[in-house]
């Protein structure tokens, strides 16, 4: 019960801050204060608006917000998000472009399960849609999954990826963004031995911790300083009474958000200070850069305790992927079994979460893959988010990945492949 009370206490604090913001906004916005104009009222109202919005976003799942894309025929085509496979802990979704023939390039984006929703990849999806058939792993918030659905750790996560790849077929091009990179590599190796015909055509790993020891960051240092017992005691809680997953052990998204913010506290404080001043001056807008970024950044989801703890223990502390010792249900998954999947790694020169060296380490593990099927790219000046969103992605990384996919594609067959349909 103590864990549930702790979880509900966090939600109470969040709710109280949202209420305080709403109250301040309402009180400072009364017309009567116009009789005694003072900057304090405008600042208080602005603080209230920003505070209310910020704390409200923390429990809202963002919408994909991709309504349409321009087509080669000069028309705008509407986009429908359809669920192809729906599992308790995650779904496989497809961005269906209405009125457009299936594209030859078929891409599966493996979204991170690290505290944010898959919508973190919204701009990545939007940039790929004009040229690709896009599928995404849409992970579910652990607080909404009943305890009766059982556990979900990194082995289960890997097997989910195996199922998704099998469903999409061997002509899929997989792009794993950040956290899932090592487990996507393991899923590919699992298929290489268990079901070679279901392997993806290409695998692109973007800024993932394949070998956390290759380059130290604040994330890897934290993993070394804290024991598993301390970690479980400090951050694991039971979902409170408000949600369907009541009683489930989780690593709360609010706690992960606090960790994210603490890594760049001065930067975030400055951003909010400037936003409040802009709102007080009447210069703020609904879709300005601040709101667009923080509406997504502040929207967080819980992870199952077993997934979070097994990630820290086996990927970061145990280095099971880095040392090619990862097992599923007691059986070793040998990365050296990958012999035909072209693999490309992408790193950011200023990545402070998965520093350069961590992701490219995957290529050394691919002992059975010809060098001609390996590629790597280091994007100078790009931070962690810049390697899958922003100008570095748009101008340099996205074109390189599309070229890599095309370079490893067979000759175009007569007629396009029909995409898989939703499972019954």
UniProtKB/TrEMBL annotation:
Residues 207-408 form the PHB de-polymerase C-terminal domain. SUPFAM superfamilies: alpha/beta-Hydrolases (SSF53474). It comes from the Bacteria. Pfam families: PHB_depo_C (PF06850). PANTHER family: BLR0908 PROTEIN, POLY(3-HYDROXYALKANOATE) POLYMERASE SUBUNIT PHAC. This is Polyhydroxyalkanoate depolymerase. It comes from Paenirhodobacter hankyongi.
């Amino acid at each position: 019960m103590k864990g549930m009370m702790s979880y509900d206490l966090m939600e109470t604090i969040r709710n109280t801050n949202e209420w305080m913001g709403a109250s301040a906004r309402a009180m400072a916005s009364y017309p009567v204060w116009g009789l005694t104009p003072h900057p304090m009222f405008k600042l208080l109202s602005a603080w209230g608006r920003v505070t209310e919005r910020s704390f409200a976003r923390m429990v809202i799942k963002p919408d994909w917000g991709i309504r349409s894309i321009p087509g080669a025929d000069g028309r705008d085509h509407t986009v429908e998000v359809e669920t192809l496979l729906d599992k308790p802990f995650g779904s496989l979704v497809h961005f269906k472009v209405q009125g457009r023939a299936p594209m030859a390039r078929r891409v599966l984006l493996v979204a991170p399960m690290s505290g944010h929703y898959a919508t973190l990849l919204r701009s990545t999806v939007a940039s790929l849609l004009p040229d690709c058939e896009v599928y995404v792993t849409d992970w579910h918030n652990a607080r909404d999954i009943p305890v009766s659905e059982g556990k979900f750790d990194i082995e289960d996560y890997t097997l989910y990826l195996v199922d998704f790849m099998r469903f999409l077929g061997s002509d899929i091009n997989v792009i794993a963004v950040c956290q899932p990179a090592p487990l996507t590599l393991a899923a590919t190796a699992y298929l290489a031995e268990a079901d070679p015909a279901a392997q993806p055509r290409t695998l692109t790993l973007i800024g993932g911790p394949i070998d956390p020891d290759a380059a130290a960051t604040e994330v890897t240092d934290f993993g070394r300083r804290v024991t598993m017992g301390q970690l479980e005691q400090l951050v694991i809680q039971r979902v409170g009474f408000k949600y369907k997953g009541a009683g489930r052990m989780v690593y709360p998204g609010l706690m992960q958000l606090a960790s994210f913010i603490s890594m760049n506290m001065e930067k975030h404080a400055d951003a909010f200070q400037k936003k409040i001043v802009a709102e007080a001056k009447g210069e703020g807008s609904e879709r300005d850069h601040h709101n667009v970024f923080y509406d997504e950044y502040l929207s967080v989801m819980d992870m199952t305790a077993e997934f979070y703890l097994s990630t820290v223990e086996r990927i970061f502390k145990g280095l099971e992927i880095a040392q090619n010792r990862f097992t599923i249900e007691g059986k070793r998954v040998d990365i050296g079994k990958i012999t035909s999947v072209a693999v490309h790694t992408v790193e950011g020169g200023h990545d402070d979460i998965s520093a350069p060296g961590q992701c490219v380490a995957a290529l050394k593990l691919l002992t059975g893959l010809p060098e001609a099927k390996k590629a790597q790219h280091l994007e100078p000046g790009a931070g962690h988010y810049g390697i899958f969103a922003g100008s570095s992605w748009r101008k340099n990384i996205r074109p390189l990945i599309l070229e890599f996919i095309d370079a490893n594609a067979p000759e175009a067959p007569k007629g396009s492949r029909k995409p898989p349909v939703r499972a019954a």
